[in-house]
Specification:
The chain has about 290 residues and is of the alpha+beta class. The protein is about 30% helix and about 30% strand. The radius of gyration is 26 Å and the shape is elongated.
Length: about 290
Amino acid sequence: MLRASRYRKGVFGASIKRAAIYMLVFLSGVIVTQMIFRTAEGHTPILSARDNVVRILAVTGSGEVTAGSGWLVGEREHSDARYVVTSYHVTVNGEALYVQQQGKTIEAVPVAADPLRDLIVLGIAEPLPGRSGLRLSDYREAEPTEQLWALGFPAVSDTVSGEMSSNTEEVTITNGIVSRMAVDPAGRHIIQMTAPINNGSSGGPVLNGRGEVIGVNTFKALEDSQGVFGAVHKDELIPLLKDAGVQRDYKSVFSPLSFIKWIEFIPVVLWSGLLLLWVFAYRKADYRVYRS
């Protein structure tokens, strides 16, 4: 009996040591992965998203041209995007609408519009080859202090460069955080953010770190209110996309960051694994003692 007891303790002790080693290796891997991908957070997805940002031109009856920004929407069954989202106020005075990218100008027509939410979906005469469009975030709700990126073609950048470029390399990217989620007097769900936007940025996408759309650039505060900018929440756009017949791309985008978001649950998993190891080792020791 004494021998059996010592044997059982030996097996249990060895199992605990193995479990501790496994936990250390696992945690080391998690920490290294976190360091690597936290460093790269936002960079690759955001830079890639520029390929789907376009300039919107609205030509009035008198020939006056106003410009804004927009972005291509990803679809399930089409590799080349056919629809563009922008702000309604960008197009409201235009008798003719055009989408520009990489020096190419394509005629566009309204497909679905919502003046109250300041959103419009445009259909383009020909798809832009190699542009699969951006996805709306289905990951989770954006939260205050979470980082975001606003993309577009602000007019001030045209002044700096001396030309109205539509090249993707000229897309302006500004970074900030979610200040708060709110509902404005018009009943729209909006994202108040610190990422600066200016005239010409309206209609451009606001992205999370995964490169998914969480909002549409819409407004900036008055001159005496610094650091306050706003975007219409992406959920306001979903009914409009359905009305336009856009078959949204619902495929999730894998990112190691999505794994890191769940890091708070790792202790639970580790303790559960330790408990299972203990039960397994204890029962195994009992079985061997019984056989002896």
